[in-house]
Amino acid sequence: MTDIKLLALDLDGTLFNSKKEVTPENIRALKEAHQQGIKVVITTGRPLAAIGNLLEELGLNNSDDYSITFNGGLVQRNNGKVLAKKALSLEDLEAIHDVLSPLGLPVDILSEGIVYSIPSQGYKSLYHTANPLLTFVEIASLADLPRDIVYNKIVTVCDAAYLDERIALLPAKFREDYEVFKSRDIILEIMPKGVHKAIGLQLLCQHLGLDRRQVMAVGDEENDLSMIEWAGLGVAMANGVPSVKAKANVVTTRTNEESGVTQAVNHYILHK
């Protein structure tokens, strides 16, 4: 097996436990990997503003450290310098809203660390419960949305059973026009077509001169599927959804509550 040079790590359900914390065991393993020259890359649907002091906690806040945020929509150095960016247009927002709103799905539009929330048929977004570090602004309609900002992605966040019921009603063309996937049981994400975690990793690897065979990607949810398939070594968490486990090269025997990331890092990178 080719030696791993880059570790791509999802957050929710992977690196984070249910308390949104990184276990001391995971911190130790990642710091050791980083000290050995491994690029430890947070690869998340979140913006950097929604991960708190994680980069400082892991010692990844240097100019030669990188993160992939917005599900691959933004590739950046951890000092803030952007390497690649892909966002939605206002026309995209209108088209997505026209599909989600009639289904009673609230629309959250993310612009960097600000979320513009549009309720639908009395349903208000639950996104603030999932990402409390972001700034939330409730607006009545798209007409109230600022025009001079970047539209990174749209999410719709509501009760899991209700969300799954509504997802089943999405028209087939919607998935043809956009990348549509769940990142948690209560969160459906909509990205520009062709934007997903694998494309962010591909762009970063080109920048770093690395081959996909030198990448290990670890995740648990639908939005991790593309990077787990793309990486030389795709690792699914024991708590991962069935579709991710089916495509992964390996599945940890420990969950995110049990520092499953440490298990994978120790075995495949630190060779313990």
TrEMBL record:
GO terms for molecular function: hydrolase activity. Transmembrane segments: none annotated. The keyword Hydrolase applies. Its EC number is 3.1.3.-. InterPro entries: Cof (IPR000150), HAD-like_sf (IPR036412), HAD-SF_hydro_IIB (IPR006379), HAD_sf (IPR023214). Keywords: Hydrolase. Signal peptide: none annotated. It holds the Pfam family Hydrolase_3. This is Cof-type HAD-IIB family hydrolase.
